[in-house]
Design brief:
The protein has about 190 residues and is an alpha+beta fold. It is built from 6 helices and 5 strands, in the order ααβαββααββα. It folds into 3 domains: about 30 residues; about 60 residues, Alpha-Beta Plaits, CATH 3.30.70; about 80 residues, 2-Layer Sandwich (GMP Synthetase, Chain A, domain 3), CATH 3.30.300.
């Protein structure tokens, strides 16, 4: 005749249920307290040991720009560090740091042709054209900033539009905004 006693996992749960039923109130409270304490320690260890996330706010800027940006941000109480040539801020304060940097007009130099150092094979032609334009703008700004009188430069390039009809073609153009060092001027030859 078959036995109606549970087997496998059901048997284990049945035994635990019977054991729990035989325990007094104080022992049940102690067991619950131990389980809650263990869960609390595990939760604390998981959450408290998580390293703070840092996000790069400026990559590829000149060392002088990076140092100036770090000074501005730390002066405003934003945690900042330099790692592998990148200025990084705590992830929780990235929006505030970007607003502070933008209001200070920083960083003054951008990436140039190094934009293509890590380009991917699956990049669209549009993304490639955008990166090419940004790279040219960055390289021109760097070249202009190398002049002794210029503290910072911003270059915007508008590529011309080609057309089958000669009269509908638009030539390429560029605009340059300069921030000169105090007391400095540029000659007409330098502006040309």
């Amino acid at each position: 005749m078959a036995d109606d006693a549970p087997t496998g996992p059901a048997a284990v749960f049945q035994q635990l249920k019977e054991l729990w039923g035989r325990q007094g109130r104080n022992r049940k409270l102690l067991a619950l307290g131990v389980v809650l304490a263990i869960a609390g320690v595990i939760a604390y260890a998981t959450l408290a040991k998580r390293p703070e996330a840092w996000i790069a706010i400026a990559e590829g800027s000149s060392p002088a720009d990076a140092q100036e940006l770090m000074t501005v941000l730390s002066g405003r109480g934003v945690p900042v560090r330099m790692t592998a040539g990148k200025v990084e801020v705590a992830a929780a304060r990235i929006d505030e740091a970007r607003a502070i940097a933008a209001s200070a007009g920083m960083p003054r130099t951008g990436k140039g042709l190094e934009l293509f150092d890590g380009s991917s094979l699956g990049q669209s032609s549009f993304a490639e054209q955008v990166n090419y334009r940004r790279a040219l703008q960055g390289e021109l700004a760097r070249s202009i900033t190398a002049m002794a009188q210029v503290e910072s430069a911003r270059v915007l390039i508008a590529f011309g539009k080609r057309s089958l009809a000669k009269d509908q073609e638009q030539p390429a153009s560029a605009s340059v905004a300069l921030h000169l060092r105090a007391g400095q001027t540029l000659s007409a030859e330098q502006v040309r």
